[in-house]
Amino acid sequence: RRVHRDSEYADGPFVAVKCSAFAEAAFERELFGMREGGSVLREGLLLEANGGTLMLADIDELPLGIQARLLSFLQEKSFARVGDSERMRSDVRIIASASTELESEVKAGRVREDLYYRLNVVSIHLPPLRERPEDIPELVEHLLARHAEALGKRVRGVTHEAMQALLACPWRGNVRELDNALQRAVLLG
User: Fold this and answer.
1) How far apart are CA 159 and CA 62, in angstroms?
2) Could you tell me which residues are beta bridge partners of residue 42?
3) Count of Cβ atoms closer than 10 Å to residue 73 Cβ
4) SS (H, E, C) 69-128
5) Global pTM?
6) Would you say 27 and 58 are in contact if contact means Cβ atoms under 8 Å apart?
7) What 8-state DSSP symbol labels residue 9?
8) What is the pLDDT along the chain (189 residues), one digit of tens a residue?
9) Which of 14, 17, 23, 140 gives a 20 to 30 Å CA spacing to 69?
């Protein structure tokens, strides 16, 4: 979201989708849209994000068939809806994230090499939370404030002992696990 906000695409929409949330055929319709019997049943995320940014989370979970269609879109800047022959254009920036190292997914044949090189223009490696404990205090402050406001609770912070426990935790679920623990603490506090 920060990359989007600080870019020439900031005035356009920011659309995020988790690639692993859909079956292959459903994701194809979701991404490219669908036309059936002369009627548009779904515009598609590529048109929804036109002029803005489309965030594809867990790109490493995208089926190979859809990877091929996505690569074609990235090269041509046009696509056809499912069930349609008319080509549509969309000016959209694609940001992709992965929960695995994409180089190893390419070697294993689960991610197309040509798609990897097309997407990997600028790469940002974000280490897991357990490798950057110095981020935990600021994240705790931010997440506590957000949950306190959302839940209508008054929270002043965490004790020194609680912060030490948070710093010692391995956080295998990364920020999502920390977020969940703090939401639970605000609810029960």
Assistant:
1) 43
2) 34
3) 21
4) HHHHHHHHCEEECECCCCEEECCCEEEECCCCCHHHHHHCCCCCHHHHHHHCCCCCCCCC
5) 0.78
6) no
7) T
8) 888 899 998 999 999 999 988 888 899 999 999 998 878 888 999 999 999 999 999 999 999 999 999 999 999 999 999 999 899 999 999 999 998 889 999 999 999 999 999 999 888 888 899 999 999 999 999 999 999 999 999 998 999 999 999 999 999 999 999 999 999 999 998
9) 14
Tokens standing for residue 120: 């990997």
- Chain-centroid distance of CA 132 in Å reads 21
- Would you state the structure tokens that stand for residue 106, as one six-digit string? 């390419």
Q: Which two tokens stand for residue 38?
A: 């002369």
CA distances from 104 to 41, 99, 108, 187 (A): 37, 12, 6, 41
Tokens in use for 160? 């020194």
CA 37 to centroid of chain Cα atoms: 33
Looking at this protein, which amino acid is placed at residue 48?
Answer: E
d(CA 187, CA 165): 19
Q: Are 60 and 100 in contact (CB under 8 A)?
A: yes
Residue type for 145, please? A
Residue 80's nearest CA partner among 39, 35, 50 is 35
